[in-house]
Amino acid sequence: MDARTRLALDLLFSVTSLTVLVLGQNIAEAETCIELARALEQQGKDDFRIITLYNPQRDLIETKLEASGLPWKDKVFCVDSFQGMCISVFGDH
User: Fold this and answer.
1) How far apart are CA 39 and CA 35, in angstroms?
2) Quick one: CA torsion of 40, 4, 14, 62, rounded to 10 degrees?
3) Whether the model pTM is above 0.70
4) Contact by Cβ (8 Å): 52, 83
5) Using 50, 70 and 90 to split pLDDT, how confident is the model at 17?
6) Which element (helix H / strand E) includes 57?
7) Which residues pair with 20 in a beta bridge?
8) I need a surface site. Which of 34, 44, 62, 84 has the fewest CB within 10 A?
9) pLDDT of 9 above 70
């Protein structure tokens, strides 16, 4: 696990809900999302969402989540679906 992923995991374990922003379509970033989702699941924190900028990246992450046996339905969204909405990035803390 690289230092970037380790830092992200350290942050994740300190919150109960997290939104991950993914920039562009990138296999390495998608795989990092899978690692983070797996770590959250292992901690019993299954209320995560992943937001990406582009539909192709959303599709890639959903495919990888499903192939990994992780929850994938209603977990990955394109940023466009949140336009005009106010959301909390770190839950109610």
Assistant:
1) 6
2) -30
3) no
4) no
5) very low
6) helix 55-67
7) 50
8) 84
9) no
